[in-house]
Amino acid sequence: MLGGDTFAPDINGSASFAKRLAVELKKRGHEVHMVAPSPDGPGRSGMETHDGVEFMVHRLTSWRWLPHPWLRFALPWRIKANGRRLIEQYKPDVVHFQSHIIVGTGLAEAAKAAGIRLIGTNHTMAENIAQHVTILPGPALRWLIKSQWKAAADVYSLADVVTTPTKRSSDYFEKMTGLTDVHSISNGIDTSNYVPSFEPRTENRVVFVGRLDEEKCIHELLQAFALLDPSLDAKLDIVGHGEDLHRLERLARDLHITDRVTFHGKIPDEQLRDILTHGAVFAMPSRAELQCIAAMEAMASALPVVAANAMALPHLVHPGENGYLYEPGDIPAFAAHLTSVLTAPPAEYTAMKKASQRIVAKHDLQATVDTFEALYRGETVTDPVTESVPVAKRSKPARGGSSAG
User: Fold this and answer.
1) Where is each Glycosyltransferase subfamily 4-like N-terminal domain found (predicted)?
2) pTM for the full model?
């Protein structure tokens, strides 16, 4: 039984990981149940098809967070009863929750009480949660961030094993919660889903994919794009939707670049893959990526990447090899790095494209699923080496005396 506070049709790292994990587990013969908020309000349970695979999804009654255009949440005052009901009815062998906020709390407590093996993966930062309640004054926001990290510590401490997608996010999670022995296991990606092109490009297209929310710092991308030499005739494709859309559209107008920027919104996977295939460089200005599946998809499409030197992005972007990192806020450097990619000689540019493919190959989805299956069985695992600098982790017995480490 998997659970999360966000799931398809939502588009974000946690939702995408949960969907891919559910699909791959079902393909391997497991009975899979997903627990998530309803995308339209009323609760219901039934078979759903995702990526051509059918499995059971329990949609909990949800309300929309009014300040946000699409974010919905399960009702907190019903989550513990719902967790107990689902655990008692379906008696899963293992429960794997993706966040502590609401759904994870109900499932974790019910699984712990029932003696069911419990795995927790963290895809969120309290700082990101807080940005959805910016109506609060500064002191209240700081209190909320502190309380969310405390809540995360309380829920994840119930788990037999805790994971995050990267070593850097594991380190940060351990620092903020006080928990230890957190595994670094990539979200994984099926590179065969993406189509790289090594044909000479006919356009200089800069691509961004992700939620259009403040935490993504897309305004820096627009500002850097506006600094590019007009002779490059560059175009900017922004794929995704979110509450920051109108502010970003205004900024594009103010920067006089609207004729070269396309806000695609939410698009089908086939169209996204086509945009990535025909892109010239992928740009990610976010400071809060615990892994960045969007960058991994771009790398599987053989795109060089220019990204902020923050959180997990340095694990994916090796300066001078498959792209460049810029210090957050340094807009001229951001623009200079984009220019370096767009003006690179053909041999150098091809080398960057191949380096992206080589680096992302370490994040094989099947290896990720293998690792989680081992954790589900209670086996001791060694974290797959996916980081820029391999990090050896000492295996220890997991919380609660389990043999998993």
Assistant:
1) 11-192
2) 0.79
